[in-house]
Fold this sequence. Notes:
This protein is an all-alpha fold. The protein folds into 2 domains: 2-73, no CATH class; 97-276, MetI-like (MetI-like fold), CATH 1.10.3720. It has 15 helices and no strands. It has helices spanning 2-29, 34-39, 45-55, 61-73, 87-122, 127-141, 144-158, 170-173, 183-208, 212-219, 224-233, 237-253, 256-261, 267-276, 280-308. The longest helix is centred in the first third of the chain and has 36 residues, at 87-122. The protein is globular and about 85 Å long. It starts with a helix and ends in a 7-residue tail after the last helix.
Amino acid sequence: MLGFVLRRGFGMLISLLLVLTITFVLMQLIPGDPASVLLGANATPEQIADLKTTWGLDRPISTQFFYYLTNFLRGDLGQSLYYNQPVLGMLAARAETSLLLGALSLLVVVGIGIPAGIVAAVRRNSWTDRSLLLVALAGASIPSFWLGLMLMDLVAGILGWLPSSGYTSVLRTGNLGNLKNLVLPALALGFVNAALVARTARSSMLDVLQVDYITTARAKGLRESRVVVRHGLRNAAIPVVTVVSFVFASLVSGAVVTETVFSLPGIGSLIVESVLKRDYPVIQGVMLVVAALYVILNFLTDVAYAVLDPRIRAR
């Protein structure tokens, strides 16, 4: 097991280095001059040249990449060109919102998607199965921002049960009650993504429930719940774990519209602001963190595979 983890860990480091390189190259291909954007249309060529010298944008691309790589290894993602703040600090300030929103949305995804998929597989072709598939189809078809607006209008506007927008840091204030601001966006994001998990869980469980060892377990007189959970779910878990891991990454990094609808200060809104302002260091930092999140989750998913299926460790 240790050798498997070390091999996957080394591959993760190589992937992170490639991500760092590709991110830097893509940023250089973006049209527009950040110095000109920041100084405005009335800036003189001398002012633009001076600002480029201050930021190091007049150096060769290879030199800029070398400094960016060495700074990254020290934990320095650079300085925002527009806000004049450390990029890492800006990301840390926004990360709490996105991570908590992703975690709450994942609870909705797992709490709805996996049980629904299991029940649909066990009751295959019944009215329960068809009803759950219909709900899953509806969930996959509804845009998260539209569902968010409907929840905002009903739950926050008409019923007045929950806040409709905004979020104040729990870590900074110590007030767990602030989490109620994330309930509606988490439901909007979670329900839409639960449909994918439910369909994956159903398909995987249907394949497992038809194999010989499930028939043998039932013939031995084991309770159906034990057959389904202990013998069926564990062997059907690998595709579900794969989907759940990438759903979580997309919930954290891809909630741009939902964060905008609910006025949440997350990473998604930071991406939009940085692109509009041509703030290259922030864009690089956000892209690198999001890509690193996918790489790390892929590594953890591989470890989960090895735990669920010992045969994978020998590969």
